[in-house]
Amino acid sequence: MRADVVIIGGGIIGLACAYELVRRDVDVIVAERNARVGREASWASLGLLRQRVTSDDAYGRIAQYSADAYPDLAASVHEDSGIDPEYRRRGGLEVAVTDEKLASLGRFATFHGSRGLAVEWLEPRDIRACEPALSEACLGAILYADDAYVRPPRMLRALEAAIVARGGRVVKGFAASRIVRGRGVAVESEGDTLYARAVVIAAGAWSELLGRGSGLFLPVRPVRGQALMYDAPAEMLRRACGVEKTYVAQRDDGVLLVGSTREDVGFDSGTSAEGIADLKRRAAIACPALGEMAPARAWAGLRPAPARRFPYIGEVESNVWVATGHHRYGYMLAPGTARVVADGITADETPIPLDDFHPERDRARVEGDQSGS
Ligand SMILES: Cc1cc2nc3c(=O)[nH]c(=O)nc-3n(C[C@H](O)[C@H](O)[C@H](O)COP(=O)(O)OP(=O)(O)OC[C@H]3O[C@@H](n4cnc5c(N)ncnc54)[C@H](O)[C@@H]3O)c2cc1C
């Protein structure tokens, strides 16, 4: 099979890139090794869109660009697919239950306000008025009016259907093993080869393995995140709330999500008794009523973590693009990533310079770590 662009990996990043390209009438194939797209980190995600990166660098710019692009992306995939990804901008809270966190939240409120985010400081009585299910031990909180979320499984299904509706192809059960560069690009799997003018590596936590097999430096490692789901009473929480690094968020259908752990356990994507117990304890600190309930389900996924903070986005060799390493912010950064990749491939220029997202920027650090220095 042949296409203009082959995208390796059908997670939120690969699908968002594919959708942005088919919207520009580019002939795209998404190659996914699993029998279904979006069953790895992107399926495990809570789907929270918390714009907290306001730095004056390329990361800050792509975060803002993504936040601005979300309403259009959500409306467009909904229209093309008939599936509502449940993009909701209901605002979110960051809550302190310790004095240390209270002090840091105070600094964040000032800093984020000065950077143009819509922030409001809440005293304990305001928090209870806003979100009565949160713990009475809350000492203070920031209300971020523009925080939003999507429902990941729906977003993924909607994107896949929207890509197909616009003429894109999704090939499942295709485990890319090597990328061969010539005049164009050939993506090989054990039994098949896909040919294209350009390729985008969006293979999440497995990107490093694919890069290594193809002579590309792409230092992404897996970081496991576990999460819980509770069948909570309807409208227990209106906004997504971050309480001391634990996030609790309730969907339209009442399901309440709690996440997540951060663990270096290689490619083990299973849940663990310790991880679940830790999340249950943290859930009860955030919302005491959850301490009386048993979670209905637990799951885990492997976040693709880059060597430093910046994800890897851009053309690393002629016609070989990467879009990976989004770690804890893949949903938040998906629309911006997709737009810059699509701009770069179709127009040869991007609205945000991509130099800072190049994996080579991390080579010295990675090689230093490996040599133990
Ligand atoms: C518990 C948890 C909660 C999270 N919550 C949030 C949140 O609230 N907000 C947020 O923004 N982010 C969140 N994240 C992070 C977010 O989920 C990730 O950053 C994002 O899903 C990464 O997307 P991806 O497409 O790069 O990777 P994946 O979703 O892992 O997709 C990669 C795809 O590539 C495929 N693949 C791999 N190798 C090959 C190959 N050789 N050939 C073909 N296909 C291949 C895989 O099968 C997979 O489908 C969370 C993550 C976890 C685990």
Highest CATH level, the class of the largest domain? Alpha Beta
Biggest β-sheet description: 8 strands, mixed
Beta fraction: 25-35%
Low-confidence stretches: none
Bound small-molecule species? flavin-adenine dinucleotide
CATH topology of the largest domain: FAD/NAD(P)-binding domain
**Rg over CA atoms:** 21 Å
Name the helix and strand elements from N-terminus to C-terminus, one letter apiece.
Answer: EHEHEHEHEHEEHEEEEHEEEEHEEEHH
Quaternary status: single chain
- State the fourth-level CATH superfamily of the largest domain: FAD/NAD(P)-binding domain
Through-space gap between termini:
46 Å
Q: Give the count of structural domains.
A: 2
Average pLDDT over all residues:
95
Strands, total number: 18
Shape: globular
From the coordinates shown, what is the CATH architecture of the largest domain?
3-Layer(bba) Sandwich
The helix fraction, in percent, is: 25-40%
Class derived from helix and strand content: alpha/beta
Q: Counting H and I runs of at least 4 residues, what is the number of helices?
A: 10
Overall description:
The chain is an alpha/beta fold and 373 residues long. The protein folds into two domains: 2-85 and 151-220 and 307-370, 3-Layer(bba) Sandwich (FAD/NAD(P)-binding domain); 92-147 and 222-303, 2-Layer Sandwich (D-Amino Acid Oxidase, Chain A, domain 2), CATH 3.30.9. Helices cover 33% and strands 26% of the residues. Strands 1, 2, 8, 9, 10, 11, 17 and 18 form an eight-stranded mixed β-sheet that branches. An eight-stranded mixed β-sheet has the order 5-6-4-13-14-15-12-16, with helices on both faces. The model has no long low-confidence stretch (mean pLDDT 95).
